[in-house]
Write a structure and sequence with these properties.
6 helices, about 15% strand, single chain, alpha/beta
């Protein structure tokens, strides 16, 4: 099995944490686990400390300068390529109709769920270009599908994920000739702090399917919006 370097944002908890855990358990990959602060990432530290080839990376996806500094630091530490980037960091809001969503909260969601992934992709593109896979996975949601919208009261979140889907497609079109594969992926409704305890999927179940799908991605999948099983979803 080939050895790849993964960069995963939102690695401190939920789906991101489980991705790190499963990849490290495989023992065949190098993982760069991104958190805002390592001071609150003790469980993650325990995982990463067992792997000599993996490390915790600190930056805030909403602060471009901190991303730039992280890239510079990684290069100084000898990281010369990234094969797979997974934008997993995200935010939700209290379930209210759109007219009740405060502007400041809406802007926060867009900053974290859309602007943040764009900043991460943009700053890490030089390292991704050196990778052998050139895969970028933006963790989206079925709630980001415009054609499947049922009016669920997470409107700001839904809008942000629809925008993330378009961001994914835009990069897919712009970078297709450079050998990249950009996809938006719905992990399902998962038992995380965001998904809640009533969700039908455990992080283990969701991530197992996600990583299997990612391992099979090829350039023919560039620009797709898909389920954790690799099935195509309608935008």
């Amino acid at each position: 099995m080939s050895r790849y370097t993964y960069l995963i944002t939102g690695a401190n908890r939920g789906i991101g944490f489980e991705m790190v855990r499963q990849l490290l358990a495989e023992g065949n990959h190098d993982v760069l686990a991104v958190v805002r602060s390592s001071a609150t990432a003790n469980p993650l530290k325990a995982l990463v400390d067992e792997s000599k080839s993996s490390k915790i990376v600190e930056f805030d996806v909403t602060e471009r300068h901190s991303i730039k500094n992280a890239v510079k630091h990684l290069k100084e530490k000898g990281v010369d390529k990234i094969d797979v980037l997974i934008n997993c960091a995200g935010a939700m809001h209290e379930l209210v109709p759109m007219e009740a969503l405060e502007d400041s909260e809406f802007e926060r969601l867009l900053r974290i769920n859309v602007v943040g992934p764009n900043s991460v992709i943009s700053e890490f593109l030089p390292l991704l270009k050196q990778g052998s896979r050139k895969v970028v996975v933006n963790i989206s949601s079925g709630l980001g599908s415009i054609s499947m919208n049922t009016g669920y009261n997470s409107g700001g979140y839904n809008v942000s994920k629809a925008a993330l889907n378009m961001l994914t497609k835009q990069y897919a079109v712009e970078k297709a000739a450079s050998g990249f594969t950009f996809i938006a992926l719905d992990p399902g409704w998962v038992q995380t702090d965001m998904g809640g305890k009533s969700a039908p999927l455990t992080p283990t179940e969701s991530v197992g399917a996600i990583l299997s799908t990612i391992s099979k991605l090829a350039q023919k999948d560039n620009g797709k919006y898909m389920t954790r099983f690799g099935e195509t979803l309608p935008f």
